[in-house]
């Protein structure tokens, strides 16, 4: 059973930085994509950044130039470095892994104060 565990969320002032981590465990035989999503109350979960099977990286326009997604294969860990944070980045951030099916982490809260 694949498990994803996020960490690194918290409260930060606008302009600050946070680095999220997502550790994957379990029987992962193939990965089609890895990504970070976020969700605020009353809104749909949105893709923030992803790494595709071919190694391509995509970001939602609102975080381009501020966020960086990366992975450490040896540690089975996905990261999201978030710089120049804005209050509108406040959300619960979820790690996502697409293998033969999709898996979600439990989420980590990021709160950016103005």
Layout: helices, strands, pairs:
Blueprint: E1 3-7, E2 10-13, E3 18-25, E4 33-39, E5 46-52, E6 57-59, E7 67-72, E8 77-82, E9 91-98, E10 102-104, E11 108-113
Parallel strand pairs: 2-11
Antiparallel strand pairs: 1-3, 3-8, 4-5, 4-9, 5-6, 7-8, 9-10, 9-11
Give me the strand/helix succession: EEEEEEEEEEE
Number of helices: 0
| Secondary structural class | mainly beta
Average pLDDT confidence is: 95
Number of DSSP E strands: 11
Radius of gyration (CA) equals 13 Å
Could you name the ranges where pLDDT drops below 50 across 5 or more consecutive residues? Answer: none
Share of helix, binned: under 10%
Task: Please state roughly what percent of the residues sit in beta strands, choosing from under 5%, 5-15%, 15-25%, 25-35%, 35-45% or over 45%.
Answer: over 45%
Q: Give the N-to-C terminal Cα separation.
A: 40 Å
- Taken from the alpha-carbon principal axes, the silhouette is globular
* Main sheet specs: 7 strands, mixed
């Amino acid at each position: 059973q694949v498990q994803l565990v996020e960490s690194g969320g918290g409260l930060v002032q606008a302009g600050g930085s946070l680095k999220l981590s997502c550790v994957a465990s379990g029987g992962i035989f193939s990965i089609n994509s890895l990504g970070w999503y976020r969700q605020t109350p009353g809104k749909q979960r949105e893709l923030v950044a992803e790494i595709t099977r071919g190694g391509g990286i995509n970001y939602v326009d609102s975080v381009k130039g501020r966020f960086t997604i990366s992975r450490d294969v040896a540690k089975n860990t996905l990261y999201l470095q978030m710089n120049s944070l804005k209050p509108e980045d406040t959300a619960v951030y979820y790690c996502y892994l697409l293998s033969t099916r999709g898996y979600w982490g439990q989420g980590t809260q990021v709160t950016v104060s103005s």
